[in-house]
Backbone:
């Protein structure tokens, strides 16, 4: 049986690192407009963006994997901070609060079948004093991360209250492996 190539439509080094544990793939980041639509909730937003990323890169000669993640707090979608001050304001907003992390993982198969899984996890962000916050911000761990944190970092200030680690990591490896193994059987 011929092996079908896999493309990861993501610029995230964390997503690539997660997938490398079980898959061989090429990376082709999808450059799409990620602006939320008017009144679009977090679940709908991550589904739409993950699907658009896969469709943007897709080729009938490969399976395309994509994902999108966003933080939802008090009805507001919180994405990646634009700069250090934005990261600080995001952290201050989330500190000591409960919020959701939404992730949608998409596989667009070479035959154009679309499979996706969207899930949420509930988290809290520990309270930091000014010195801890400044050290955290100076570490630049927040760069390119929705909500200004990475659950993969050992010093991450976020803790999962309920839900799956994959949701917070930004891609569902179990969903991808299950879907691809069904294709081979």
Residues:
């Amino acid at each position: 049986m011929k092996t079908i190539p896999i493309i990861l439509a993501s610029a995230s080094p964390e997503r690539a690192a997660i997938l490398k544990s079980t898959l061989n793939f090429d990376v082709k980041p999808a450059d799409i407009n990620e602006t939320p639509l008017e009144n679009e909730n977090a679940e709908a937003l991550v589904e739409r963006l993950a699907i658009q990323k896969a469709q943007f890169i897709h080729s009938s000669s490969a399976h395309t994997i994509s994902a999108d993640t966003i933080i939802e707090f008090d009805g507001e979608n919180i994405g990646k901070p634009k700069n250090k001050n934005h990261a600080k304001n995001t952290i201050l907003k989330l500190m000591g609060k409960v919020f959701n992390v939404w992730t949608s993982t998409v596989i667009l198969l070479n035959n154009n079948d679309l499979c996706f899984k969207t899930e949420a996890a509930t988290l809290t962000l520990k309270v930091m004093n000014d010195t801890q916050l400044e050290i955290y911000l100076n570490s630049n761990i927040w760069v390119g991360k929705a909500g200004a944190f990475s659950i993969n970092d050992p010093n991450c200030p976020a803790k999962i209250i309920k839900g799956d680690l994959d949701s917070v990591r930004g891609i569902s490896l179990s969903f991808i492996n299950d879907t691809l193994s069904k294709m081979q059987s």
User: Anything to note?
Assistant: Residues 63 and 109 are 4 Å apart (CA to CA). The chain has one domain: 6-184. The beta strands are 6-8, 26-27, 63-73, 76-78, 98-108, 114-125, 158-162.
